[in-house]
Design a protein that fits this description.
Layout (H helix, E strand, L loop, with lengths): L8 H14 L4 H9 L6 E5 L5 H9 L5 E6 L2 H14 L4 E4 L13 E7 L8 H11 E12 L5 H10 L14 H12 L2 E13 L2 H12 L13 H22 L2 E13 L1
Parallel strand pairs: 1-2, 1-4, 2-3, 4-5
Antiparallel strand pairs: 5-7, 6-7
Helix pairs in contact: 1-8, 5-7, 6-9, 8-9
This protein binds S-adenosylmethionine.
Length: 267
C-alpha cells in the first residue's frame, strides 16, 4: 500500500516540543528504561527523522555505542547531521528508504528501533523482514506507534467541529496494534507489548491548535474527505478552534492522552 505522507522538520519539531512542554511523562525515559541498552551496543534507528532517539541512546550510554540513524527524508537527515556536528556525537546518519532492501549487512545490529515510522511502510512484512535480517541472532527490534485509543480528544474535537464526519482510517492507529504486531510475531521468537500513556494537559486552546495544525497540515492527503485546499483547511481549523474553546470552557482544561504501544521483539 502506498502511504501519502511527508513529514516536515517544522511540523515534527512542533509536535515534539508540545509533547515535552505539556506532557506529564517523558517517552524517551520510558523507552530507555525498557530497552536497557548496553555500552558497546551496535544500534540502528530506522525512520530516525531529526535523530531524537539516536541522540537519546548516545546520551544514555555517554557515547559508548555505535549508532546509525537512517531516514528517507533529506531535510530531516540534514537537521540530524547538523545536531550531530554541533554536539560532536559521531552518530552516522544515512539515506535509508525502508521500502527498499537496507544498504546494510546481515546479522550486524544488537538493536534496531523504529519509532513512529513503521506504519508508513508500503509493504510491512518486507520492511520488518529487513529489520530482522540486519539484526544479530538474539538482537532486538523495538517499534513504537499509536494504539487505537490514542489521542481520543483530538478526534472527538474534530468530529464535533465537522458534525460527526467519519474520521478516515489513520495508517498508524488503525493497523499498528493488529496487522503490524501480527507481522512481528510471525518473524520473531519472542514479542513483549508495553504501553506508554502520556496525558498532555492544555490550559488554553493555542497549543492544542498548534498540535492539530502540525498533525493535519502535512497529512493533507489522508484528510482529503475533510479539506482540499488551504481555504477549506483554514475553515476547518476555525471550527476546530471553536469546538476546543467550548470544551475548555466546559471542562476547565483539555486533556489529550497519547497512548503508545512499544513492541520489543527478540530475533
Ligand atoms: C513521525 S516521524 C518520526 C521520526 C523520529 N523517529 C521521531 O520519533 O522523532 C516519521 C519518520 O518516518 C520517516 N519515513 C517515512 N517514510 C520512510 C521511508 N520510506 N523510509 C525511511 N523513513 C521513512 C519520515 O521521514 C519521518 O522521519
Amino acid at each position: 500500500m502506498k502511504i501519502e505522507y511527508k513529514e516536515t522538520t517544522s511540523d515534527l519539531a512542533t509536535r515534539i516540543d508540545i509533547h515535552s512542554k505539556f506532557g506529564g511523562r517523558n517517552i524517551d525515559t520510558w523507552m530507555l528504561d525498557l530497552l536497557k541498552i548496553q555500552p558497546g551496543d551496535v544500534i540502528l534507528d530506522v525512520g530516525c527523522g531529526s535523530g531524537k532517539q539516536c541522540f537519546s541512546y548516545h546520551a544514555y550510554l555517554n557515547g559508548k555505542a555505535d549508532i546509525t540513524g537512517g531516514d528517507v527524508d533529506k531535510e530531516l537527515l540534514a537537521q540530524a547531521r547538523e545536531t550531530d556536528q554541533a554536539k560532536g556525537t559521531g552518530i552516522k546518519f544515512i539515506d535509508l528508504d525502508f521500502n527498499q532492501k537496507f544498504p546494510l549487512p546481515d546479522n550486524h545490529y544488537d538493536l534496531v528501533s523504529c519509532c513512529f515510522a513503521i506504519y508508513y511502510a508500503e509493504n510491512v512484512p518486507f520492511t520488518i523482514s529487513e529489520m530482522h535480517r540486519v539484526l544479530k541472532p538474539g538482537g532486538r527490534l523495538f517499534t513504537t506507534g499509536p494504539m487505537p485509543t490514542n489521542k481520543q480528544l483530538f478526534y472527538d474535537i474534530i468530529r464535533e467541529a465537522t458534525n460527526n464526519k467519519p474520521i478516515p482510517p489513520m495508517p498508524g492507529s488503525s493497523r499498528y496494534s493488529t496487522e503490524f504486531l501480527a507481522t512481528i510475531k510471525n518473524l520473531f521468537s519472542k514479542v513483549e507489548v508495553e504501553i506508554f500513556e502520556n496525558p498532555l494537559t492544555f490550559e488554553t486552546v493555542e497549543p492544542f491548535i498548534a498540535y492539530t495544525r502540525a498533525s493535519l497540515s502535512e497529512d493533507r492527503k489522508l484528510w482529503s474527505t475533510f479539506f482540499q485546499g488551504k481555504e477549506e483547511f483554514e475553515q476547518m481549523m476555525k471550527a476546530i478552534e471553536q469546538a476546543a474553546q467550548k470544551r475548555l470552557e466546559r471542562d476547565g482544561k483539555l486533556v489529550m492522552t497519547k497512548v503508545v504501544g512499544g513492541f520489543l521483539a527478540t530475533k
